[in-house]
Specification:
RmlC-like_jellyroll, Jelly Rolls, single chain, RmlC_Cupin_sf, globular, five-stranded antiparallel β-sheet, mainly beta, Cupin
Amino acid sequence: MTGSAKATVFIDNERVIVTEYRFQPGDNTGWHRHGHDYVIVPLMDGKLKLLTKDGESFAEMKKGAPYFRKEGVEHDVISANEGEYAFIEIELK
């Protein structure tokens, strides 16, 4: 990924990768494809813009409310917030 969001890897072992993503307004992850199933845990309420091959959509994020996605998701994730935003991504290997 080559986006402007700050990624901090906390755990990377044979079973899992745990990464915190911190965004300033307009920051993005960069276009990427998930090679593993993953869980996102929002650290605060906020809104994210998701760009996919099918277009764009918006997701309302709720602090502490995790969600799961299967491997293969391809997208760019962009902060649509007026202040800092962050989430934890847990990739299952």
